[in-house]
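We treat protein structure as text, and this decision shapes the records that our systems exchange. Such a record has a labelled line for the sequence and another for the backbone structure tokens. The record that follows is passed on verbatim for readers who wish to inspect the format:
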Amino acid sequence: MAETTDLQSEQFMTLLTDALRSGPGSPEWHQAVKLLRESEQNIDDYTLLYAARERLESGKDYRGVRAGAGFTRKVLAGIEEQGNPSGGMPTANLIALIAAGAILAVVVTIGFFLFKGSSPQQQAIEDLSLKIFGNKFLAANFASPTGTVPLPPEGWTTFGELPLISKSNELRPATLPATADATSYKFGGLISSADIPADRLLEVDVTAHAMKSTDDGIAEILVSDEPITPANGAGGHAVVWQFKGGEARVFLADGHAVPRGEKFANLREIPVKLILNRDTVIVETAGQRLYAGPHLLSPEKPRYVGIRFRRRAGDATDKGDPLGITSITLQKP
């Protein structure tokens, strides 16, 4: 046919049109390529046919050639076949694999930076919150069938000018004499007799009973890195949970209050929890987290745990004390 077919003839144009419509692998495609290859030896099949198409269509719209159904698919299949003569992985699959790998790399990178963005303090809080405490090593329970509990309980020491009493199964402050100075608070409480190492993980669980919400009197749970004595009973370098006027607040060891407080005016039973390690404390009241972060206690000094009440002479006892303590328990993991 190479000898009888004119490449400018209508016959060849028809053959080329059929070849381009049918796509690679068709008889028409092979026949057209064979004819063109006799005159063009150093050009690939696709270039031959596209060049022929351009020559045919130049100025002859009526001879315009359009790819037939499946042309694109067949061309890509031809490229795959020529690009993988040894039967290796198809190009399309390779591209898909590379894209999937790129997406995975992005996800891993984002995860890495999110993890890296978590500060050491946040990680310390998370680790501390996951600790499980179950070994009780010191406790005091003020509920008694007789209504009276000997003070101080074993393992605890009393301190301060304000006497304590066991009343209605709770630890409460006694009434100050009327002759006492009414312009300032007097204090009194219980403190653990033995010190607790600073590196010991510690959970302090307190069950408290709230009475009417008044501004008369203050109740506190404290963890100090200094012994609480008559000389420093009102202070001490301590992280403090405080209840006053129906509101719970947290104070750090430097004396500053944390921003968040919580009102518990309508509660009667109020569970309080402090969880500490060498540097961090988590404080919760009735299941609500009031603070989590540095407690600012010395990382080297031992700890002392206590209950402290503050009251002024002349506070109206008929209104009820702000808070009574039913029990306090110290646990380690």
The radius of gyration is 43 Å.
